[in-house]
Design a protein that fits this description.
The chain is of the alpha/beta class. It is 13% helix and 23% strand. It has a seven-stranded mixed β-barrel. The chain has a two-stranded antiparallel ribbon with strand order 2-3. It has a two-stranded parallel ribbon with strand order 6-8. It starts with 7 loop residues before the first strand and ends with a strand.
Amino acid sequence: MEVDPGKIVDLSVTLSEHLPATWPEHMPFAHKNWSWFEEDELPTGACTCSLGPYVTHFFILDEHAGTHVDAPSHYIPPPGSKLPEAGPLGETSAEKLDLSRLIGPAAVIDLRHLDGEAEDGASPAITVAHLEAWEAEHGRFKPGEIALLLTGWSRHYVKGEAGRAFLHEPVVLQSRPAWPAPEAGAAIFLHERGVNAVGIDAPSIGSAEEGNEVHRAGLSREMAFIEGLTNLDRLPARGASFLFLPLKIAVASGAPGRAIAILP
């Protein structure tokens, strides 16, 4: 199968130490040199190591860094843990996800009008009414579709002081409204329509002030949540194909990966 490169849209953010790639309380993304082409002096006065005429780096990567997918084990405790809501899905880690659920026709819901409609430190709610309004214009969600929530929030995923608006200001400082996020009822509504995966161009599917409820509602129904997308504004409401492939990391609660769309 040949795909026109001009019809591929990269929906993934770039991982960098200079970008707001990870949740504030999580391990920050780190990307360091291990071997340079030759011994060379660094600004610190130390020298790079050279293992041969090539370069390689290593990185420290949180499971939920950048564009990534949440596995059920992210919020569902495993059987035998004696924790509330424990169950078999607590053993479904990222490498066990059904990849067919991460590939499918895209349904893009434009919710950018909600941006800013909340108090500082809180997320505007994406409700069932918003999804029903989209259906009234574009038709009912179809089983197997991947719902992509276009909030416009990925515009804050930039370097420098402006990048603090992505996570630090709404979550840590609570000095501005956060990204629009779906209520638990909205996730359940999509699941009942046959939607098994939901993506969002924001740091989390959950709200800045209380993200647990929607995660539990969706992941307990074996939905996949793909967070940290970008470029959703380049897709039509319907007609594009979506694909996300996560890194295959054993016993991971989530996994970064590459998301793309293929335009019609």
